[in-house]
Amino acid sequence: MKTLDLTQGGTALLDGPAGDLEVVFDLPRGPVAGLAVVTHPHPLQGGSARHKIPQFLARALCDAGWLVARPNFRGVGRSAGPHGEGEGETDDVLALCQALRDAHPGTRLALVGFSFGAFVQARVARILADRGDAAWRVCLAGMPAGDIPGRRRYDPPEDIPDAMVIHGEQDERVPLPLVFDWARPRTQPVVVVPGADHFFSGRLPVLRSLVMAHLAG
Question: Which of 24, 77, 89 is nearest to 55 (CA)?
Fold first, then answer.
């Protein structure tokens, strides 16, 4: 992937594994406190880097001094390639993480994902850890796990270092018991937001507080 010019915010096209990878950058006004990659929900269901939840979290992170990168998954916006069922998207995020680390060596890296984006980030986090270059913190909100009714099966990896898993009590797309079924054998804690649906409607400030608290540790 080409060297990143991170002197300005906005949108950039990077050289990804499948061709162009469109990334939206949010740059802090002061010194960079860390690097955060924030990923969006399922691209075949309207997800994009400009979805309200990635945008909402990116704004909070940027205000706290994080340099935020929001990639568009394959087939979304100007990102090349067909939908990769999570595997291609994982490759793209790994390449983006490397480019960010090359541009800011020694700077801590956080992975934040929502819905399908959380599934991708779980995969990315596990691969980075296996390489001995783990992310500093990981936040996974509304992550699909198990057999999602009417959709497909998701098998997130186990033992994700420094991960906070956040889920809505009344998530209608990814029922909470499925997440518990994934978490139970791994003794992975799950933070449950009472009354929250999949999109954390009316509970976004709670989601933001949980993410920011985890990244402030």
Answer: 24
Q: Identify whether the C-beta of residue 26 lies closer than 8 Å to the C-beta of residue 62.
A: yes
pLDDT beyond 50 at 166: yes
pLDDT digits (tens, 9 = 90+) for 81-116: 999 899 999 999 999 999 999 999 999 999 999 999
Of the CA atoms within 13 Å of residue 62, those in its CB half-sphere come to 18
At residue 28's C-alpha, the angle toward residues 12 and 48, to 5°, is 45
Q: How many CB atoms lie within 10 A of CB 52?
A: 12
**What residues are paired with 14 via a beta bridge?**
21
Distances, alpha carbon 109 to alpha carbons 15, 71, 95, 145, 174, in Å: 20, 15, 13, 24, 27
Tell me if residue 12 falls in helix, strand or coil: strand
Instruction: Read off the pTM.
Output: 0.95
